[in-house]
Structure formats: C-alpha cells, structure tokens
Amino acid sequence: MAERDLRTEQELATIRAWLSDTYGIEASLSPLPGEHDLNYRVSAADGQEFLLKLHATGDADELDMQVAVLEHLAAKASDLSVSRAFRDRSGAVTSKIELRGPRTARLLSWLPGDIWAKAPVRNAASAESLGRLLAGLDRSLEGFTHAGTKRLYAWDIGRADMHRKHLELIDGPDKRAAVDAILDHFALAVLPRLATCPMQVIHNDANDYNVLLDGQGQVSGLLDFGDMVETWRVIEIAVASAYALIGAADPVGTIAALARAYHQVNRLSETEVELVFDLVLTRYAVSMCMAAKQIRDNPENTYLLVSQEDVWRELKRLQSENRAVAIARIRDACGLAPIPHAAAVVRWLEKNAHDFAPIVRPGVARPKVAVFDFSASGPEAAQWAGLDPAGAEARIAAQIGSEHAAFGIGLYGEDRSIYQGDAYETSVQGARRSVHLGVDIFAPAGEPVSAPFAGKVAFIHDDAVPYGFGPTVLLEHEIDGGVRFWTLYGHLSRESVASLSMGQPIAKGEVFTTFGAAEENGNWAPHLHFQIVTDHLGLGGQMHGVGVRDQWQVWREVSPDPSVVLGLSVPVSVIVPRDKEFLVRERHRRIGRSLSIAYSAAPLKIVGGEGAHLIDEDGTRWLDMVNNVCHVGHCHPRVVKAAQTQMQKLNTNSRYLHDSLVEYSRRLAAQFPDPLSVCFFVNSGSEANDLAIRLARAYTGNRDIITVDHAYHGHLSSLIDVSPYKFAGKGGEGKQAHVKVAEMPDLYRGRYRYGDEHAGRKYAEDVRSQVAELAADGRRPALFFSEGILGTGGQLSLPEGYLREAYAHVRAAGGLCLADEVQVGFGRVGSHMWAHELQGVTPDIVTMGKPIGNGHPMAAVVTTEAIAASFANGMEYFNTFGGNPVSAEIGLAVLDVIRDERLMHHCRVVGDRLMGGARVLAGKHAMIGDVRGHGLFNGIELVRNRETLEPAARELDFVIAEMKRKHRILLSSEGPHHNVLKVKPPAPFSTEDCDYFLNALDETLERLSV
To answer: Which residues pair with 547 in a beta bridge?
Structure first.
C-alpha cells in the first residue's frame, strides 16, 4: 500500500511539473476513474479548474476524432455544455508526456456537476434537458465527418446483428431468449425502417457516467466523445434513454420526455419517433451480448456482472410495457397523433353516423336513457362501492324504471374506483387503469345486441375472472384506404357467444349476441360494455376496457368517444381532468403561443369562482385582485340565473324583435347624459372600439386618429394601430401614418407632476400639437382616444382638466372624442358610473366591454343620434351575436346588481380604505413611490429611489410571486416600466379582503427590504 501511495505521489509530482512547463499552470491534482485513459481534476492556483486526460498509445484516428470534434464544436456551438480544449504554450491542443509509458495529453475545461448515476436530483426534467443538449449537439454535428467515425463499431446498435454470435455466452435461458427475440425483431422489423432514417456522426454514449447534472437536476455537461460513430441519428436518443430511465418510476415516460425535448430542438421524422422504443431494447440486448463476451475474456471482472443486473432489470421492465402503447406515448410526446389512423376512423364514423343501426332497442326511435355516475368523485361513489351485484342490479333497474327510461348508461371517460385487483395495475407504480374506455348500456340479461354497421368476428375471448369482461367479442370493420378498426362488446352471455365463429360476417343491424347475467359476465350487473377500438394493442380479445388517466391523450385515441355510434339525446362522455403540466403542454401545442399563461412559473388550474375569489382544483381560494371582468363577483347567482333562464327560452340574433334588447338599450343609455342616447351592441371591447373608429370616420369624413402614448385599445388590426402599448413594443410594426400619439399625462414621472395645478392644460397642449401637425399636412382628426384612467399607462389618474382641454382642441378641428370605458366603467371608480365623469366631460362616443357582462362576452358603443345617423349610409351594420337575448338579460342583471347591491358606493369606500392603507405603508416602505387611483382601480408604483424614480420592476415581480405563493393573492404588474402593482378586483372585494391584502403587502415588502 505504501509503495503504491508513493508511486502515486511521484506521478502527481511529475504531472504538476509537466503542467507548469507545458501550460504555465501551477495546480493540485486529484485522480479520477477511467477505463483506458488516466484522468485528473486540475485545480489551478488562480481558482480555475480543468480536466487532464492522458491517453495511452492506441488508435490514432480515434484520438484525433475526439480532438477534431471539440475543435468543431468550439467553432460552431460554443454554448453547448461540452468540454473545450486548451492549447499549450506551443499552441497545440495535444502534448506528449511520459507516464507509465508514452501518452498523449489533453487539457480540457472542467464541467461542473455530479454524474447522472450519483446525482442527488434527477427526474423527468433531467431527461428533457439531456434531450435538448443532444439535439443541439447533433444539429451542430450535421456535416461533421472524420475517418475515426466511419468504423464498424460494436457499440453502434445500428449493427446489432453482429452480436448474434455472442448469444450463447449469455448466462441464463430467460436472458438468452429475451435477447434473441430483440435481435430477431431488430433484423426483421427495425433495421429495414432504420435504413430510411437520417445518418450522421453522433456522440453515441450519453450514459449515466458521461452526463453531468447540476443541483436542480438539469444537465450541466456531457463527457467522453470516444464512442462517436457515423450511424443513424435516432440511435443517439435510444442510447441516452437506455441510461436515463434506470430507476425511473415511469421508464416509457422518461423516454418520451427525452425524445420530446430532442424533437423540439432537432425535428425527428415519424419513423425515427416510432423506432426509439425498439432501439432502447436493442441497446440493452447489445449491452448484454458485449458484457457476456467481456466476462468470457475477463472472468474476474465482477463489475460487469453487477452492471448487467441494472440492464437486465430495466430490459424486463420495458418488456412488461405494452409496446404499442409505449410507441403511442412517444409519438404523442413528439406532437404526433398517438394512433396515426385514429382520426380517419373518427371522421368515417361522424360522416356515416346517420346510417348506423341501434345497438339495443332498435324499435325505440329516440330512446330516453337513465344516466349513472360511477366516477370515483361522484356523489354516490360510496353507495355504489358498497353494493353487491344483486344490489347494484336492483338499484339500476329501479332508477331506469322511475325515469321511464328504455335503458341506462355509464359514461365514457369516467375515472372509476370500482376496478380493483392486479389486473388494473400497470408497470408504473400508482398508475392504475381506471378511466372507462367505453359506454355501459344497462338492460336485463338476455337483451339482444345488434351490430351498428357491418363487420366480421375478429376475436372471441371469455374473460372468466371476477370483475373481468366475461364473454367478449370484437368485430372488425374496414373503411376507406384499407383502414381497420374494431368494436368491442363485453359482458355477454356464453350461450350467444358460443354460436359465433372467427371470421363470421355480421350485417348492419343483425342481432349477434345478448347481455350476460352477473354469474357469467364477470360478476357485474347485466350490461353491455361497448367500445370503439382503433388499435387492439396486440391484445386481441383481451383488449383493455379501461385506460390510465395520466395517459388519457393516448387512450382516447386507442378508444375514441363512442357517442357518435350511439346518437343518444344525452351526453355519454365526460372530460377527463388532467394535471397542470399536461394542460400547459396541450395549450402550447393546440393554442397559439402568443396567448400567455398567468403565473407561468407556477400556473393555476382554476375550476370555480365566488365573489372576489377564484377556486383551484384542490379547493384553495385565491383572492382575485386583477379581475375587473367579473365586475359584480365571480358566478354572481343573479347573473347566472338570468343567463340560464333566457338560454332555456331563446337565443337568436338581434334582427328579430325582443323586449330584452330594447329594455337593455334603454337602461344602458340612461346611464349617460344627453346627447348620448343610441346603442350598438357587439361582443368585445375590441369590437366596440373598432366600430367607434368607423362611426367617427363616417361622421367626420376624416381618417386620422389621436391616441395617448402607451395606451391599449384592443387586439384588432385597426386597434393595434392606435395602441402604442402594442405597435411600439416587441413584435410591433411601429406607428402608422394615420396615427398621432399624444404625450402620456403622468403626474408622477412625466414632465408635469403632482402639485402643478396647470398640469392638465399643459399635457393637453400636446394634443393640440398633434392636431396642428395634421393641419399642416391638410388633414384633420377623426377621433381622439383616451381612457378616464390610463390602465396600461400604469393606472394613471388624469390631471384635472386634461380631457376638457384635449376635447376642446380636437373638437375645434372637427374631430370626435371617445371615452374608452372597457376597463374602468360601471361604477368601479366609486364616485361616478364612468371614469370620464371624473374629468367633467361628455364624450361623443363611449365604448364598454369587460365588466358589462360579468364575464359573458358582450360589449357596447353608445353615441349621439347624429353620429349614429351618419353611419346609416346604406351599408347595413349587423352583428350576429351582439345584442342577442341572452346577452341583453345578462346586461340587465349586471345593472340590477350594481344598483341593488350599491356596488358603486362600495367601490368608493373600500377603494379609499385601500389607498389610505397603501399610503400608510408608503411611510414605512420607501419602495412605494406612488399610490394612485379612484375607487377600486388603483396603482401602487414601486421605485428603488424616490429621487431618481428608478423603477423597481424586479422587486415587483418578487412581490407578485410572494403574494401568490404565501398569501394566495393574485396580482399583476402594469406601466411602461412594469413596476406598477395593478389593483382592480371584483367589486364585492370587502373591507376584510382589503385589510388582508394590506397586511400581506406589508409583510412581503418587509421581507424584500431585508
């Protein structure tokens, strides 16, 4: 031992001296493990760290390949987390050293992190980050070539067939049989498809000792390019997956996560995606063959025996997975349809549904059905769970009879707890099959079953176990293009099934079987389980009737909603609730990514609302302080009832006469002074403002618009043009020629500030300047846009007299003036119904939206009779949904609630309390620079310095995140510098809510200052 330690110290001394001479580095050294090379961690005196590799004499092409690839990546992809080579004093990337014989040395950058195999944190996100790294690496390696990569390499699983000769060396007949089957499948099914895939140089060895993870489980580095080879690109994913899934709770989920992340960066072909699963198995088979050969050649290497136990365990786990489901999951992860032909089947069913025969009770044209709820979360779940088959049968029959129904149904997509036993377990711990893939039809035993369309008997199976399917039949159907699918009929009578034979044709409407009794149908109450099957997953007659909730996007493609076949008068399916991670993924996939997600770092799944609170999936109540849309409170019962009542009677367009529309127009117009008396009804604030522009242009004959800087008035093209918040921001196209932008009247950080009694007039001078610029070009304004309080400007209260002066300048030039009340109307400001009234002005046009329908999509424009008459120029204005009876009734209910619950006064009282409390906090926390607003439309501006007014945007981000995390309060930011805390809760926001908010804000700012 002493001799070995002495030799090690001598070697380290030799290397230290060599480093000093060759690289000018004074350092300490720590030996690292290595199979062929000598590896050392180099800790330099200046704090830098390096990896020193001393390569033994060997394949020159292989070493040169490793040198060349790092040079290539340094030039082409310097951001990749791979080592970088350092040049010695002579400028070379390799040097010579004598240590246990001649060696070639390379000094590389040190990559931080723990090796994957020993990292304390590794999860699905680790696999995703590995997928992204490998995708970026492979994109960078496209076109890279080197003689060393063109070798016939045993670890290239694309050459897996070369390992057949080692099969007999594998210890154990079960292992030999498994590897033999994998290699057979590779040769017959995988290799012919693989041959059509892209080829390039790949890393080929992202194993759990070559991948580094940081403290959060993200990949921080990739080591060892010695196994590089030119082969099929998809093998990169398979090799990495084979190691990433070791010990993972969900091995296929890990493969899917890695493949998805790779695909997002470096797009895979459909064939590549479908081959990943088989190639992971192939990697395991090759590993076992290679290990068997190495153990034969070196029987004392016990490490190989231990490492192969991991391989054998994971191979068995993967083989326990249903291959078709695994491939479907990986397809889905990569954005492909899980079952490629499922959509064609559904389209055929929908196209031909009118011609289907009833499955049961063909003599009843539109059968009435009793609907049963067997879901685990249903109100009667406990009662159903406590019934034996006879009791369940009696209860079902009683409900069908009491409702005078033809039969009963159990719903598709229900997550049920009644499926007990090992048969419903999956290879993923805790992921049981529990979601119903078909529809249950309840009727007495012996009830005849007819085929809805022609087919032939494909599978017959008797699942004669407790709570199994009992006798089961699958009919096969072929549609256009040779696409096949099946319909499954479970819980049948043995006598009726005994008369069927494989391949037997069954005509549309033909009775071919009957319901079974409990004693023969798996011990269930008599019923038919009917299911559509697009892929029987290789299970044939033993096809599953329930799927895994967390994989529902795959199972619903395997067995689509059978409602289309049944054509009943009630819904026979339910939406399967999913977790937030899946919903985010699906939103990104199916909804335009320009639609952001609130609190994206930790999004909320909101399922309910009440008053000033939102309620999430766990029942947690969140104080909603940013939702001025649900103005009179989330789900206000009076508004909900008005909508339900009218919807049950009629909803049609406004061309027909209807009392509610006329009454609502009268009530709404009554909220304004003369001459504002004519209403137009639309569906959103954007539509309202767009229509206002058309009205102004029709009346004035002019086209130019004056808007206030940083304003936002809607998402239509016409409104993006008049919204500096959009056109001057990221993705905007700049100001259009017909738009003039007036200075934003900001009393806190603008040119004219608090205490300047003439600030309103001075800011309005810029409106006059815009009018003058138009006049200089021989043009006049059509319309001046402004809110009564500037929302996107930072919840800015306008200086006294601003609108009065600005309106005068515009009107003197023949233009009209618009008050945009989409954000601030309907009593929110407390002292008045409309924010523009704070300025003592009467606009020519007022637009409304958001709060007008308490969340229902409706909006309005109110203007004068003269302006409205100018728009009646022969071109009819018609809005399909604007002013429909349901919207009119909702609008009336909102006005009633505002009046009867005295919400305008309430907004004033609570708003004053909130702003007073916030100003008290400003005396305690210097970060609060300004508190402003009216009623319950407020802004609290945070600054780092009250003299310089440096915006505290990052600090506000912290406040918003912490108010959500710790206090369950939902807030948002506003303003050009994103440093204004925006406050605009539903009007029922109480004094208790206000105090809770102020205390929470105090506590959060206190922590921030510390």
So the answer is: 435
The beta-carbon contacts of 895-900 under 8 Å, at least 24 apart in sequence, are 895/667, 895/668, 895/671, 896/638, 897/632, 897/636, 897/638, 897/639, 898/631, 898/632, 898/826, 898/827, 898/987
Pairing of strands 511-514, 433-436: unpaired
In terms of Cα–Cα distance, which of 710, 715, 773, 775 is closest to 744? 710
Q: What is the pTM of this model?
A: 0.90
d(C-alpha 247, C-alpha 317), whole Å: 10
For the chain, what percentages of helix, strand and coil (3-state, to nearest 5) are there? 40, 20, 40
Token duo for residue 706 = 């004056």
Q: With contact defined as beta carbons under 8 Å apart, do 752 and 802 qualify?
A: no
> Has residue 4 got a pLDDT over 70?
no
3-state secondary structure 609-672: EEECEEEECCCCEEEECCCCCCCCCECCHHHHHHHHHHHHHCCCCCCCCCHHHHHHHHHHHCCC
Helix (H/G/I), strand (E/B), else coil: 71: helix
Return d(Cα 988, Cα 259) in angstroms, integer.
Answer: 49
Per the listing, tokens 């008045």 go with 832
User: Where is 108: in which H helix or E strand?
Assistant: strand 102-109
DSSP-derived letter for residue 186 is I
SS3 of 771-792: HHHHHHCCCCEEEEEEECEECC
Q: Is 919 helix (H, G, I), strand (E, B) or coil?
A: helix
- In angstroms, rounded to a whole number, what is the distance separating the alpha carbons of residues 631 and 825? 10
- Return the bridge partners of 448, or none: 514
- pLDDT at residue number 466: 82
In this structure, the strands spanning 102-109 and 969-970 are unpaired
For residues 387 and 410, give the distance between their C-alpha atoms in angstroms, rounded to a whole number: 16
Q: State how far the Cα of 180 lies from the Cα of 491, in Å rounded to an integer.
A: 39
Round to whole Å and give the CA distance between 220 and 227.
Answer: 20
**Tokens at 1003, concatenated:** 């506590």
Mean pLDDT computed over 112-123: 93
- Cβ contacts of residue 727 below 8 Å, gap of 6+? 720, 721, 733, 734, 735, 736, 739
**CA–CA separation, 542 and 544 (whole Å):** 6
Which DSSP letter does residue 753 get? -
Give the residue-averaged pLDDT of 91-113: 93
Contact 458, 411 (CB under 8 A): no
Residue 6's pLDDT band (boundaries 50, 70, 90)? Answer: confident
User: Quick one: 940 exposed, middle or buried, by C-beta within 10 A (0-12, 13-18, 19+)?
Assistant: buried
Look up residue 543 and give its amino acid: M
For residues 434 and 418, give the distance between their C-alpha atoms in angstroms, rounded to a whole number: 8
Strands, E, within 165-222: which ranges?
A: 199-202, 211-213, 219-222
SS3 60: helix
Contact 464, 503 (CB under 8 A): no
Q: Would you say 875 and 918 are in contact if contact means Cβ atoms under 8 Å apart?
A: no
SS3 state of residue 170: coil
pLDDT band, very low/low/confident/very high, at 299 (cuts 50, 70, 90):
confident
Residue 603, preceding peptide bond in cis (omega within 30° of 0): no
Alpha-carbon distances, residue 549 vs 346, 468, 470, 579 (angstroms): 21, 20, 24, 10
Q: Report d(CA 318, CA 281) in Å as an integer.
A: 8
592 burial (CB, 10 Å; 0-12 / 13-18 / 19+) is exposed
Which residue, 967, 974, 963, is CA-closest to 932?
A: 974
Residues 578 and 413 sit within 8 Å (Cβ to Cβ): no
* Separation between Cα atoms, residue 61 and residue 204, nearest integer Å: 17
CA-wise closest residue to 779 among 715, 705, 675:
705
